[in-house]
Design a protein that fits this description.
- The structure is a single chain.
- This protein has 226 residues and is of the alpha/beta class.
- The protein folds into 2 domains: 6-81 and 137-221, SGNH hydrolase (Rossmann fold), CATH 3.40.50.1110; 86-133.
- A hairpin with a 4-residue loop joins β4 (82-87) and β5 (92-97).
- The strands form 2 sheets. It has a 4-stranded parallel β-sheet, with helices on both faces. Strands 4-5 form a two-stranded antiparallel ribbon.
- α4 (50-63) runs parallel beside α8 (136-156) and α6 packs across α7.
- It has 10 helices and 6 strands.
- It is globular.
- The mean pLDDT is 92.
Length: 226
């Protein structure tokens, strides 16, 4: 196994470690970095989209060109319908889930504040997007393009990218089999959520706990040593 100096992890709350008693010490990225004897760099964010994971991973690479060849990147993919919208008023990105904007009042309230839009405008946007602009297939194709491009960019600089699916509300497999990408099927399951359900009967699909993160770190370490 290659010796890495940096473990760069990105994704949503599953990758961030929400659900652990002690997030910074018990999440899988910390446990795995200890096993690999390298520096943990976790830039995941609760509620984050795949758009954000790709964008911020790219930004990290741009700012740390000299570290990429000694880095292992792991991305936990999240819900397909999450996306980042850029506010021209606030000059920042906001992660949203269009179906949740459409159905959940609390989500539309929060998004309207962050994007400096009225709730009526948010609802109109969600309605138009779901009816005319968004569906599984183009979203899936775009996700695969982003994965292939980011993977090629990292490999060209000597780094390595592994990804896995944290969860998907629709319970469908979004990534296509290709020799260009390295997907980690946790325990042979296509999402981390399904893997946890295979050994914990009480699991209701919520955030992985400290034990789940320990198990994932062990599985990843075994995989890296194959």
């Amino acid at each position: 196994m290659k010796n890495y100096k940096y473990l760069v992890v990105n994704g949503c709350s599953f990758a961030k470690g929400q659900g652990c008693k002690n997030v910074e010490e018990e999440r899988f990225s910390k446990l795995l970095s200890d096993k690999l004897k390298c520096e943990e760099i976790n830039i995941a964010k609760g509620g984050g989209s795949n758009d954000r994971a790709f964008r911020t991973t790219f930004d990290w690479i741009q700012e740390n060109q000299n570290k990429v060849k000694e880095s292992l990147f792991i991305i936990g993919l999240t819900e397909l319908y999450r996306k980042d919208l850029y506010s021209n008023v606030r000059k920042t990105y906001t992660a949203i889930s269009v179906p949740e904007l459409y159905h959940e009042q609390s989500d539309s309230n929060e998004a309207s504040v962050k994007l400096c839009m009225s709730e009526d405008d948010i609802k109109k946007y969600a309605d138009l997007d779901l009816k005319y602009l968004t569906s599984d297939v183009p979203l899936m194709n775009n996700l695969n393009r982003q994965l292939i491009l980011l993977n090629s960019y990292i490999k060209a600089q000597g780094g390595r990218l592994i990804f896995f699916a944290s969860f998907s509300k629709e319970e469908r497999k979004y990534t296509k089999k290709t020799d260009e990408l390295e997907e980690f099927m946790i325990g042979g399951y296509d999402t981390w959520r399904k893997f946890i359900s295979s050994y914990r009967d009480s699991y209701k699909g919520n955030h992985p706990n400290s034990d789940d993160h320990k198990i994932l770190s062990d599985k990843l370490y075994e995989y890296l040593n194959e």
